[in-house]
Amino acid sequence: MGIEPGLNPNWANQTSNHFRITKSICMKFMLLFLTAVLTGSILAAQEIAKLSEEKSKMLQNLDKQTSHYGEMAMSIWDKAELGFLETQSIALLIGELETAGFDVKTGVANMPTAFIAEWGEEGPVIGMLAEYDALPNMSQAAVPRKEAREDGKPGHACGHHMFGTASVAAAITVKNWLSESGTPGKIRLYGTPAEEGGGGKVFMVRAGLFDDVDAVLTWHPGDANISSPKSTLAAIGAKFTFTGKASHAAGFPDRGRSALDGVEAMNSMVNLMREHIPMESRIHYSIEFGGGAPNVVPAKAIVSYIIRHPDMPVTRDLLRRVQLAAEGAARGTETVVSMEIQTGYFNIMPNAVLSKLVHENMKLVGGVSYTEEELAFAEEINTSFAKPVNPVLANTIDPYDPNPPVVSASTDVGDISWVVPTSSLRAATWVPGTSAHSWQSVAAGGMSIGRKGMMVAAKTLAISALDLYKQPGLFAAAKKELIEKRGADFKYEALIGDIDPPLDYREGY
Ligand SMILES: [Zn+2]
Ligand SMILES: [Zn+2]
């Protein structure tokens, strides 16, 4: 692959160059034709050429910033701050956005580490999401073998240091283009804290902060480059506290009423219920407190549940049934039970209009080429998997799958996707075969494999936003799809009810 004179030397390692873009103009023609059919507008040939030129410039601008954003991501990786405690990480991201001219509001939706950065006066609003929280006890050095940097400390095992950085890079690139081209449009970056269990985005959606957004473009680190309309499981987390009567377990058991009996009876009923719930459901529980000393009839016992299903309304109904089991158990054991909702995520409502657009743009960006050093790193990581994976690095874009399987996990992006048309791509920041929340993901995310993947995401988000601003009919098409899927009379009601953000949920880790 040739290198054009005057371009950043990093260009050599990137497949996103003029050559590729020129080659893909034909493909772009096809996409534009399809979108024209959707939107009822045909772009003239010269507009298509201009679009391609503008995208090419955006990609070049991001290439020039590769090392800058790489350093920023590494700084957040180093800090590895947990949910709702990400003060230093957001200071870095906010500083970058303010320097670029964004207006920043911090502490939104009653969360000190949540923020909104906005640029633009009028026109359609595109939202991008930045996550930045790490996971407890996941410390790992950037080496291809299990080796903690500091035992027991947090680590970026979900790649959120890259997630936040790439989204900021994309938002600033879009802002620069809007400003230079005089295109009407607003770009808004949401700093969304505590994705890992704190559900920051849910509180932001509940506060109405996404109500005026036309589309959300986001991404997540992964082990492949892919954009497809994937969904996730809706999830509700609830804590059940049983209260009984303490008594001497041998001397006066008849005077006691065991709260642990309540928990066991409830779990037993839920386990029987499993045969009579939809196949795709998931119900997990953990007894958080069983009562303490065995010679005392337990007066208090706590069990926490997470209930999941691909559809939010079914998940809600499963919670109702689990609640009935709790009430029945309390009645039968003469204890009292109370329920506290802790988390609640909608399933992701995929949007094919946006996913296809992002997929085409991801193909324009291309994958990345890797160095010998990166290849050796990936090969060693590959030996740590139970089943070796081939190839050991993902340097291509996966084909578009219109009907991908539901991801068996949950995220607070789900709530956003029921309110605003949303697409989420994955970029290969990890070695293929790597699971999120593993030492392998922290390791690759701490070296150049992660940083290269992160720039694929930033570039794809930026040029996809450009397409949307240029062809506003796409916003309407995406919105139409959302309304058809969720129903015309849908009204967002958070699964968490009116609880406050659990700001202290990671304290002490
Ligand atoms: Zn995660
Ligand atoms: Zn994550």
Binned, the helix content reads 40-55%
Helix and strand element order? HHHHHEEEHEHEEHEEHEHHHEHHH
Kindly report the average pLDDT value: 92
Oligomer: single chain
Strand content: 5-15%
- What gyration radius follows from the Cα positions, in whole Å? 25 Å
* Strand neighbour order, sheet with most strands: 1-2-4-3-5-10
Dominant shape? globular
What labels would you give this structure?
binds zinc ion, 6-stranded mixed β-sheet, 10 strands, globular, 15% strand
In words, what does this structure look like?
With 509 residues, this protein is α/β, with parallel strands linked by helices. The chain has 15 helices and 10 strands. The chain has helices spanning 18-23, 25-39, 45-64, 66-79, 87-99, 160-181, 200-206, 259-273, 312-333, 352-365, 372-382, 413-419, 439-445, 448-470, 473-486; strands spanning 103-106, 115-119, 125-130, 186-191, 215-222, 234-243, 282-289, 300-309, 336-345, 422-428. The strands form 2 sheets. The chain has a 6-stranded mixed beta sheet, sandwiched between helices. Helix 6 links the parallel strand 3 (125-130) and strand 4 (186-191). The longest helix is centred in the last third of the chain and has 23 residues, at 448-470. The relative contact order is 0.18. Residues 1-26 and 32-41 have low confidence and may be disordered. Bound molecules: zinc ion (ZN) (2 copies). The site of one zinc ion has 4 residues, from loops.
